[in-house]
Amino acid sequence: MEKEKKAGLASLLKILPPVEFCCVYGSALHPNNYDKSTMVDYILGVSDPMQWHSQNLVMNGHHYASLMAYLGGAKLITQVADEIGVGVHFNPFVSVNDEMFKYGVVRMHDLVEDVLNWKTFYLSGRLQKPMWVQILVDNLDIGNLNSVNLKGAISAALLLLPAKFTEEQLYAKVCSLSYMGDLRMLFAEDRNKVKKIVQGQFDAFHTMYKPLLEEYAAKGLLQFSSSDGHHAIMSQDCGLSVAWSLVSSLPSQLRSQMGMKLGEKTKFRESGRVIREVVVGSRDEAAECMRRVLRRKVMVSSARQAVSGLLAVGGVNAKEWYDEEGDERMVFKER
To answer: b/e per residue, 268-295, with b = 16+ CB within 10 A?
Structure first.
């Protein structure tokens, strides 16, 4: 991204308290986006959200809904995010230099937990898609940690795919993971959103996942049969041993939840460490179990965050907030 554009994106940070992580994402970053009214989306990671909001209320109290700011202050803002939502407080409709911004504030510990373990699968799902992401601040190297998140996404997608598929279908399956169970998708007008996202950002998906695809191919978990643009043919062994390898590379919290349903077996390492492995009786059973667990996780997270978001923005902006959150899922439109 050109320096001028990056400097423009960093303009919001100049008026906010310091952050440990800042990621800008969404359709506003798309080079073919000419709609200047599109909100630019930020995720801000901070060590202590309550302290950060306390400082920000003094600096930018107008960014918050008046009800939240005056009745409860930083404590209420943080409690609503943590106890009702999934740990993220959003301030939308923030105007700076004639541009509209929306920024979400999350505790760094919660961000790391979601990236590594899919605790809520809310932010980790966003970071699995290119979304024209630009990381501006990364004191804890979240960008590197996200490789674990991407590996989990590839493993989950492969479990849900047949023996043969195209590269585009693989990315579509990755993209669909964080939509499974999302209550907002029940009201989505465009049922081809995932397909449009992947086709519109295919090269970005390819760049993002190419190292992992090569790693999986080297391990024998994936084979490249032929190449023809977006329709490059791939294949995989659908046997139990490969299915077990894919399940083993899923995030630990997801494996634990699957283990509660499919059963677990205990193994002892030479170091004395005890590990628990999910019992994989059949590939289809493991895939369906994972689908159900992810679907429920997304459903709960999306419902909690929707309620939290409506409380955070106040009644006046509630409908506009909901519409914007739904539109955010459609980060690329056919042009």
So the answer is: eeeeeeeeeebbbeebeebbebbbebbe
Tokens of residue 250, six digits: 């899923």
Cβ 130 vs Cβ 206: under 8 Å: no
Name which of 214, 204, 161 is nearest 223 in CA terms. Answer: 214
Tokens for 50, please give them.
Answer: 């309550």
Picking from 2, 12, 24, the residue whose alpha carbon sits closest to that of residue 98 is 12
The DSSP output letter for 84 is I
**CB 305 within 8 Å of CB 183:** no
What's residue 306's pLDDT?
87
CA distance 292 to 270: 34
Distance separating alpha carbons of residues 213 and 223, to the nearest angstrom: 9
**169 pLDDT above the threshold of 90:** yes
Cα separations in angstroms, 299 against 92, 151, 153, 176: 23, 22, 18, 13
The continuous run of DSSP H or E covering 171 comes out as helix 167-176
Instruction: Give the total residue count for the chain.
Output: 335
Indicate the residue type of 121: F
CB 170 within 8 A of CB 212: no
- Nearest CA-CA partner of 252 in 116, 86, 159: 116
Rounded-to-integer distance, Cα 233 and Cα 221, Å: 14
For 173-218, the pLDDT digits (tens) are 999 999 887 766 665 545 677 888 888 888 889 999 999 999 999 9
- What pLDDT digit, counting tens, does each position of 31-55 carry? 555 555 678 899 999 999 999 999 9
Give the chain's end-to-end CA distance (angstroms, integer).
22
